[in-house]
Design a protein that fits this description.
The protein is built from 6 helices and 10 strands; from the N terminus they run ββαββααββββααββα. The protein is of the alpha+beta class.
């Protein structure tokens, strides 16, 4: 019960994934990113363990197609899953098990892959790809959000969505951006609000990790 978009920003080397669902806390189960390696989303009847396995296989040098071909070795119920895989070369692959729910579809573009199940329209994944590639936003995170917004505008999931998430990694071993809306009436609207709050502070918080003496104060009590 999820639609998602993963992308690789070739200019910065960053990977990102944005998604939304009628289920609560979707980003906690489906978002898998690794710096320098790639992005994996396991959705539909989700097995959260497939994401780390897929990233490990990518790190070993397998192509996304090879990763998809190998996943059945790790999950005897793979036919219940919908999985997207994206690597550092911008190549992608998708697995749609025979148990994928409702209207389901996927789309691939330059450095991006999108997929969804229980969709209102089979064109939703392509709308996400097109929206992402057409976005002229400066920030990668905003282009990802523009992409999924285009999918929602075409109908998104057949039922009302309740949760959303957006995460990005760069060359550091933690997520540069990691925003979640676990339950809300308009989760993508709330995700946009959080992103607007986060982006002006993102790089300063990253600086705190690598050069804390140079990081700015935010004026909160005890941190003047």
């Amino acid at each position: 019960m999820t639609f998602s978009l993963a992308a690789h920003d070739a200019a910065t080397g960053r990977f990102g994934l944005v998604l939304s669902s009628s289920s609560p806390a979707v980003a906690a189960r489906c978002v898998n990113l690794r710096a320098g390696v790639g992005a994996v989303s396991s959705q539909n009847v989700t097995n959260p363990g497939l994401g780390p396995i897929g990233l490990d296989l990518l790190a070993e040098g397998l192509t996304p197609e090879d990763v998809v071909a190998r996943l059945g070795e790790y999950d005897p119920y793979l036919e219940y899953r919908q999985v997207t895989v994206l690597d550092a070369h911008g190549r992608s692959a998708v697995f749609n098990g025979s148990g994928t729910l409702g209207v389901h579809a996927f789309a691939q573009g330059e450095g991006a892959v999108a997929a969804g199940n229980m969709l209102a329209d089979p064109g939703v994944p392509q709308a996400m790809i097109d929206g992402y590639l057409a976005s002229d936003a400066q920030e990668f995170e905003q282009r990802l959000l523009d992409g999924i917004a285009a999918g929602l505008a075409l109908g998104g999931e057949a039922g009302p969505v309740r949760s959303a998430g957006l995460a990005v990694v760069d060359d550091r071993p933690w997520r540069l951006t990691d925003l979640r809306v676990d339950d809300a009436d308009a989760p993508l609207t709330e995700l946009q609000r959080l992103l607007d709050l986060w982006l002006p502070q993102r790089d300063q918080y990253a600086l705190r990790a690598v050069l804390p003496a140079d990081a700015p104060s935010y004026g909160v009590p005890g941190d003047e």
